[in-house]
Amino acid sequence: METAATPEQKAGQPPAILTALDAVSRPDPYPTYRSIQEGGAFIRCDVGGWVTTMVTGYADCSAAFQSPSFGNGYSAGIHADAHRTPGSTDSGLKSLLRKDPPEHTRLRGLVSRAFTPGVVATLTEEITSLVDTLLDAALAAGEVDLIEAFARPLPLFVICRLLGVPTQDEPVFSEWIVPMVRGLAPDMTLTPEDLRARTEATNAIHDYFRELIAEVRARPRHDLLSQLVAAAQDSDDLPEQEILDLCVLLLVAGFETTVNLIGSGTVALLRNPDQMARLRADPDLVPAAVEEMLRYDPTFPFTVRTALRDTEVNGRSFRRGDGVVLLLAAANRDPDAYREPDRFDVARYADSADVPRHLGLGLGVHYCLGAPLARAEGVIAFRALLARAERITLLDEPSYRTSSWVRAMSHLPLRLSV
Questions:
Q1: Which InterPro entries does the protein's record reference (predicted)?
Q2: Which residue has the higher pLDDT, 199 or 352?
Q3: Residue 297: C-alpha distances to residues 97, 145, 410 (Å)
Q4: Which fold has domain 90-300+333-417?
């Protein structure tokens, strides 16, 4: 199979992948992503022997996402991160993410029942009640960090509720989540401190869930963890370690997506007051606005895939084992896919059925399992925030956690007035 010419990294300049990773925690990484995108649809990068191709356009990222010729390649030992740094512990976050069908299909089927529209609908009342309680406190305080006071507690409560984690244990999970999310990046991009923190957090959360699993075995309940334990007892195909890994994955994925959706969505509204005014005037636009927020500033700017066999994407050939990094944040603002891609438009997904589906929640077999829940949380949160806070003022610039793989807002100081 012949390989089409691909732009190479230029001598004396860092590989495009490192430039992209470095931009993740900046206030505005999108000029950097656009510059990378303008450098080519496929850009070959060599990072200390890790050779990969960065894919920057919407059509190409979508094609790779949906092609059965691309997957994770862990089982075949051909994924770039298949062999971890000696002495470090994998957080388990990639337990489902790293699987390819049919293993992926089996595990996804076990947990998908917790995220059906029916289950999400039953949680709506609890989510609404918590949102109102959090906003009561925030409005009474006047000046708040929206991340700490609102964006973090909401998804943490919901995902712990699904897993059956007692309310009093919820706060400690946010301490464990941060190093595990940071550890999502390939080991070669992490510092020794990152690896140590990931290992410690992983061991702590695994110990916690082992105790909770033992309680569930003795006294089954009506939650997802009880369902997983029951499935394990009925089959030899679900060992306890897989249950632990799935719990960690669901906890972290269900947390980070919503935290950043609320944080980045609020900032986008504040920086586009005409769009905030439009949303206040027409609350029915909130679901479309949430889709635009997910497109405009996604939590996960990248994803990594591996060619499982010799294949081709829109004229670019790949050999089995070739790695690709899909630059989703750039694809979501591809001018070939979206009209005025850098403009934040709360009605973009309401005005036309022809707008391409964003990649903020993935695509294909790895489409975000908790998407219905994240959307519901976002819609309820923004409807309430805009209805109850007559004035929202940014007191200082938002800050972001240092991360090369996840766009995670850490602080958003606001003044809320009725």
A1: Cyt_P450, Cyt_P450_B, Cyt_P450_sf
A2: 199
A3: 21, 20, 15
A4: Cytochrome p450 (1.10.630)
User: Per-domain residue ranges for the chain?
Assistant: 90-300+333-417
CB 328 within 8 A of CB 300: yes
Q: What is the per-residue pLDDT across 64-78, written as a single tens digit (0 to 9) for each? A: 999 999 987 655 555
CA 183, 261, 62: angle at the middle one, nearest 5? 75
Q: Both tokens of residue 331?
A: 């694809």
Structure tokens that stand for 17 in this block: 């992948």
Hey, how many other C-beta atoms are within 10 angstroms of the C-beta on 11?
A: 5
The first and second tokens of residue 414, run together, are 């606001």
Average pLDDT over residues 134-162: 95
Question: What distance separates the 2 farthest-apart alpha carbons in the chain?
Answer: 65
Distance CA(226)–CA(23), nearest Å, equals 41
350, containing H or E segment: helix 348-351
Cis amide leading into 166 (omega within 30): no
- Encoded tokens for 139: 């409005």
Whole-number Å distance between alpha carbons of 329 and 29: 9
Question: pLDDT, tens digit, for every residue of 89-125?
Answer: 555 545 556 666 777 777 777 777 777 788 888 889 9
Chain Cα centroid distance, residue 304: 13
Q: How many CA atoms lie within 13 A of 384 on its CB side?
A: 23
DSSP 150: I
Residue 150 and residue 147: Cα distance in Å, rounded? 6
Q: What angle do CA 66, 75, 86 make, to 5 degrees?
A: 120
CA distance 190 to 249: 19
Report the sign of the C-alpha dihedral through residues 67, 117, 258, 267, in that order.
Answer: positive
Say whether 270 sits in a helix, a strand or coil: helix
Report DSSP letters for 377-416, one per residue.
Answer: HHHHHHHHHHHH-SEEEE-S--EE---SS---EEE-EEEE
Distance, in Å, from the CA atom of 183 to the CA atom of 190, rounded to the nearest integer, reads: 7
What is this structure's pTM? 0.89
Note whether 115 and 367 are within 8 A (CB).
no
Residue 199 to residues 86, 181, 186, 320, Cα–Cα distance (Å): 11, 12, 14, 31
- Cβ atoms of residues 300 and 407 within 8 Å: yes
| Tokens encoding 335 | 């001018």
CB atoms within 10 A of CB 352: 9
Sheet with 413-417, strands from edge to edge, namely: 143-145, 413-417, 391-394
Query: Residue 327 and residue 55: Cα distance in Å, rounded?
Result: 6
Closest to 111 in 3D by CA, of 306, 377, 373: 373
